[in-house]
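Friendly challenge for the regulars: who can give me the structure tokens for this chain first? No prize, just bragging rights.
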Amino acid sequence: MQDLHQPLIDRIYEWVDPSLELSLAASGAKVSLLISDDQATVNIVLTYPSGGAVESLRHFTNQLLESALPHLTLSVNVSHKIIVSDKAKQGNSLDNIKHLIAITSGKGGVGKSTTALNIALALQYEGASVGILDADIYGPSLPMMLGVSEQQRPEVKEQKFFMPIEALGLQTMSMGYLVTEKTPMVWRGPMVSGALTQIINQTLWPELDYLIIDMPPGTGDIHLTLSQQIPVSGSVVVTTPQDLALLDAKKGIEMFRKVDVPCLGVIENMSTHICSQCSHEEAIFGEGGGEAIASEYDVSLLGSIPLSFDLRKGLDHGQPIMAVLPEGSLSMQYRQIALKLAIRLQLEGQSATATIPDITITDD
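First reply, four minutes later:
Bragging rights claimed.
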């Protein structure tokens, strides 16, 4: 009986996610089939959040079952289960978080914080539970980008723990919640590292699939503190096509490699400018830089984001593009990047054990 239905299960594993161009089998998904009396039930568990592709997968599976098992009542269930990073199983204060992802850049001004926030919102839109930590102690920008009032402060629990502030569905924490924009952060390196460690370890995060960490630019004390004291699953380097930015991005990749934090990919920001009057597209900062650095270091180019007036304007008013226009063309690019990032995490942590089709058949 199992051999009879094995080809059907194999065909389901061949389905390819249109956003990732990746099959269920390659992604490590789990498929099970239960046949009982006149009912056939397929349960598909994805290893990454992919809310946008669920209907496509369900439709594909339904058509397959209707053709192969026309005499049965059909049911197709699709869900996802994020696999916990091995680094997260260390018995620390971040046990509720499955993956910590550092979004970094070698230099400032490349749109790192914008990218971090929209990736967090994209992962949430696809069905994941997500938090974001603004680790830029000197220049925290998260409260403004989220539209959080200057007067809002984190709730303190048991006189020693911060409760994250929920904004746009995200669990968030930032030094910007603890100081005003007029408070200058004139701190030396050890003070900065200590502040970051305190914020991370004294924040009571709920259960999260992903915590996005918006790092400050550069490769200094904060980055070393993060990599040495926090179970980071991987890093993402944001750059522009400009030669100077690419040079600094290389330093970021090298630094994380030296502290054994895998680079999950590169994002090229400000890749092109599209004229609002004539729609002419021009690579004003150069072109091909992100692809070149990804190739040099054998990492993925997760995506390229163009310059956008709407993107900048929205953030200035606390309305990030992913929250306002999640189905827009720019948001679709962030969603693709987020899914690629999620699957890179899955593949990084995937053990050598291959996914074996699980078929359960009973005749009552």
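Confidence is low (pLDDT under 50) at residues 351-364. The longest helix spans residues 329-349. Your move, everyone else.
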